[in-house]
């Protein structure tokens, strides 16, 4: 499927603001993929579909988590996480994308995981820094993304964890595990 077909599919799944965000993530992911030697087509597809389930009903996502073998512990954490693994499931079932690297990047674009591939990092960071994002520190994150993606990932993880703590929200264990893995990797350099 080409870019236009993929964008047409996702546009039907989301409101205009989310679609504009998706375009920003796609453009950023392609730039980062070029910079870090990642397959640009895979980055493009993963970015286009990363929020495929974002606008689905919470009840639908909950049912998919319960019935389709997704990690049940998701149900104990922030619902904002759900759209990532549910989205990967739906992209495979409804769109027919079966590339495991693309599906993994979609699955973990909100939480991260301990053994992130460069594609995973590109999608996670692109989602965090796309041009529509406006928050304190985003410019620093953008600079890091184009010089050291691991430092950008670490920056995003720290800020996400701090944000959730300040809001007295639970933090998904995979996010902590990702943070620890990136710190260990950085210390071993």
Give an account of the 3D structure.
This protein has a single domain, classed as Hypothetical protein af1432 (Orthogonal Bundle), CATH 1.10.3210. The protein is mainly alpha-helical and 189 residues long. Helix 2 packs antiparallel against helix 3, helix 7 packs across helix 9 and helix 8 packs antiparallel against helix 9. InterPro entries: Diverse_Catalytic_Enzymes, HD/PDEase_dom, HD_domain, HDIG_dom, YqeK.
What keywords describe this structure?
mainly alpha, Hypothetical protein af1432
CATH level-four homologous superfamily name: Hypothetical protein af1432
Q: How helical, in percent, are the residues?
A: 55-70%
Beta-strand proportion: under 5%
What is the name of the CATH class?
Mainly Alpha
Q: What is the succession of H and E elements?
A: HHHHHHHHHH
Structural class: mainly alpha
Q: Give me the count of strands.
A: 0
Query: Roughly how many Å apart are the termini?
Result: 39 Å
Shape assignment: globular
Q: Can you tell me the CATH architecture?
A: Orthogonal Bundle
Mean pLDDT metric: 97
At CATH level 3, the topology is Hypothetical protein af1432
Radius of gyration over all CA atoms, rounded? 16 Å
InterPro entries: Diverse_Catalytic_Enzymes (IPR051094), HD/PDEase_dom (IPR003607), HD_domain (IPR006674), HDIG_dom (IPR006675), YqeK (IPR005249)
Keywords: Hydrolase, Iron, Metal-binding, Nucleotide-binding, Nucleotidyltransferase, Transferase
Domain HD: 18-132
GO molecular function, one term: nucleotidyltransferase activity
């Amino acid at each position: 499927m080409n870019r236009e077909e993929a964008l047409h599919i996702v546009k039907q799944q989301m409101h205009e603001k989310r679609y504009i965000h998706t375009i920003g993530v796609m453009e950023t992911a392609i730039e980062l993929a070029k910079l870090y030697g990642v397959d640009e087509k895979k980055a493009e597809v993963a970015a286009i579909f990363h929020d495929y389930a974002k606008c689905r009903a919470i009840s639908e996502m909950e049912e998919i988590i319960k019935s389709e073998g997704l990690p049940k512990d998701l149900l104990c954490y922030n619902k904002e996480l759900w759209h990532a693994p549910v989205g990967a499931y739906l992209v495979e079932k409804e769109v027919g994308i079966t590339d495991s690297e693309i599906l993994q990047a979609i699955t973990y674009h909100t939480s991260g995981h301990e053994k992130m591939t460069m594609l995973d990092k590109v999608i996670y960071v692109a989602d965090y820094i796309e041009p529509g994002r406006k928050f304190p520190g985003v410019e620093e994150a953008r600079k890091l993304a184009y010089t050291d993606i691991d430092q950008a990932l670490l920056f995003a993880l720290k800020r996400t964890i701090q944000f959730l703590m300040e809001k007295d929200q639970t933090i998904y264990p995979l996010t902590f595990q990702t943070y620890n893995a990136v710190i260990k990797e950085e210390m071993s350099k």
